[in-house]
Here is the input.
Amino acid sequence: MSGRTLPHPPVQQPASLFESCSWFYSLCREYLFRDHTAEISRALFPPEGPAPDTHVLELGCGPGFYACRLSEEYPQIHTTGVDLSRRLLARAKSRAASRSLQNCTFAHGDAHSLPDASNSIDAIVVSRLFLIVAKREAVLSEIFRVLRPGGRCFIAEPTSGFRTRIPLGCMWLLSKLSSSPAGKYREPRQADVMTPTDFSALIHSQPWGDVELQYDGWYQYAVCRKDREGLTGLRAPTIAWEAV
Ligand SMILES: C[S@@+](CC[C@H](N)C(=O)[O-])C[C@H]1O[C@@H](n2cnc3c(N)ncnc32)[C@H](O)[C@@H]1O
Here is the structure.
């Protein structure tokens, strides 16, 4: 025996409901959920529109709804949609292809650990992601890290446990009816919707230059601007994007 420590075998993650029910989630996104494109544009871009080559990241993009909407509306920008679900990414890609979008790409990745350089991204869109992720503060800290000084993020989270329970419950049911190993999904049976107090505490866990919080009944929003140049202690990326 050499005494060398063997690497740990990769930890097998439970399956994702978004992977097994990608078609169902895509339908919900297209026809059921609210379209916040106008609010996103107002929050992230100046009134005359985004500058050429503005790079927008959509984290947890699912079927790429906002990445495609923004790319279509602003041909001068480039959007990258990032998600853990390969099937949803495939749907996002074909959504972009069906609209002949050249300025919209997609990558497989984890919002907890982004490969982008610190202070490099102009704007970030996050819709309905924090109710699903394991470590909210870690994701927000990555958003803060990769945004450039002056860059903004738009975050939209549902406020109604009941309304989020319906699509998630349907996904559980559909997965149970299919051949997937029911009961072994990484997502919770009920979405963990944040109270306004939790949402505000999460947003303020990062040292934003400016924060605007809004509530409108079904959704809570945060628009945050980063002021400061790369703070000490920000983690340098060690991984690369896997384009899909
Ligand atoms: C509720 S959906 C929201 C999708 C889309 N943003 C929307 O507005 O409909 C959550 C998405 O986040 C993805 N996701 C979950 N955890 C993730 C993570 N750690 N990193 C990246 N994406 C993640 C899921 O695969 C799913 O597509």
Notes: The domain at 17-229+236-243 is CATH 3.40.50.150 (Rossmann fold). Residues 1-6 have pLDDT under 50 and may be disordered. The CA atoms of residues 156 and 221 lie 5 Å apart.
